[in-house]
Write a structure and sequence with these properties.
The chain is 47% helix and 12% strand. By secondary structure, the chain is of the alpha/beta class. The chain has a single domain, classed as TIM Barrel (Alpha-Beta Barrel), CATH 3.20.20. A hairpin with a 6-residue loop joins β1 and β2. α3 packs across α4, α9 packs across α10 and α9 runs antiparallel to α12. The longest helix is centred in the first third of the chain and has 32 residues.
């Protein structure tokens, strides 16, 4: 049978148009899928809902939420919170400094039921102007009252200019050599002080900061992101954000700055869509940020614990993270 050449040409055009349409459809679907894709941190797999996050090359790895003892109530309730955290896969406790009796009670809780063996311990040493000569005694006090022989991550409050960073690193190096401390972390240090600490450690062969503990949250971004984040990324410092859940999430929003109100409203939208607590969304947002290992979260009761640990399994989509970024940007 003879086929008309013009008909054959028309069929080719129709087939070509169909191919173009199909290709455009593939691109459209890919763009839509990308927008809905979850922003998993590099090492977070789809299942289980979380994975321990390594702290650089230190050999330490943390649950995505670092439990803080700062809000612990009475010992019985505190024991319940710790046990609930362990049951959820948690593996690290940040010890808030306090009076001798408070620390001694916390040490008793850690000793009971083998809790200490299941938890990494982090702590931040006292006042910003703590002289290096007093550092060994301050660490020994913590160890004695807690009934432990080592602090896994020892943080320092922001150094005042009158306290040489070299002296602090020398004293801290002796503690590391003695096995009383494993890893050092900066506290509220600015980027320039972190650079100074890195250079000093390299020149003197001293232990360097492996982490930093800045104040960082959806409503308090600029101090960290503009001054410290580039240094943290460049030096591969693990980041443990402090005060990660805005207090305004649980309180009145009257009189708050417009940006904060806008941010909290954006959090509410995501929380409603995912049927989780707003605090969970605030923590999940932090977990999308480069170098963040685990927010340091004070927990008072089982409800607060549930909202905190749930963040480990909430992987925000790119569009959700972008909406929160835009709402909270200065």
């Amino acid at each position: 049978m003879t086929v008309d050449p013009e008909a054959r040409s028309g069929a080719r055009r129709t087939g070509g148009e169909a191919a173009v349409a199909e290709a455009l459809g593939v691109v459209t679907r890919a763009q839509r899928d990308l927008a809905a894709r979850e922003t998993r941190p590099l090492l977070d797999p789809p299942s289980p809902p979380f994975r321990l996050r390594p702290l650089g090359d230190t050999g330490l790895a943390f649950h995505p939420v670092l439990l803080s003892s700062a809000a612990f109530p009475d010992p019985v309730a505190a024991a319940s919170v710790i046990d609930g955290y362990l049951a959820a896969g948690g593996n690290a406790l940040d010890v808030a400094d306090g009076d001798d009796e408070t620390l001694r009670r916390l040490g008793g809780l850690l000793d009971a039921g083998g809790r200490r063996e299941r938890l990494l311990l982090s702590a931040e040493i006292g006042a910003a102007s703590l002289p290096a000569a007093r550092l060994p005694a301050a660490v020994d006090r913590l160890l004695r009252l807690l009934g432990v022989d080592r602090i896994d991550v020892l943080g320092f409050a922001q150094h005042e200019r009158g306290v040489p960073i070299e002296e602090t690193l020398v004293a801290a190096g002796a503690l590391v050599a003695a096995g009383k401390v494993r890893v050092l972390a900066g506290g509220g240090h600015g980027g320039d002080r972190l650079l100074e600490a890195r250079i000093t450690a390299a020149q003197r062969g001293l232990p360097r900061f492996e982490a930093v503990r800045p104040v960082y949250s959806l409503v308090e971004r600029s101090g960290y992101e503009r001054g410290v984040a580039p240094i943290a990324v460049g030096q591969r410092l693990g980041v443990f954000p402090r005060l990660p859940v805005p207090a305004a999430l649980a309180g009145s929003r009257r009189g708050l700055p417009r940006r904060v109100v806008r941010t909290l409203a954006a959090v509410d939208v995501v929380a409603t869509e995912r049927a989780v607590a707003p605090a969970t969304v605030a923590l999940a947002w932090l977990l999308t940020k480069p170098q963040v290992v685990a927010p340091v979260v004070p927990v008072r009761d089982p409800a607060g614990l549930a909202a905190a640990v749930a963040a480990a399994g909430v992987h925000l989509t790119r569009s959700e993270a972008t909406a929160l970024d835009r709402a909270s940007d200065d």
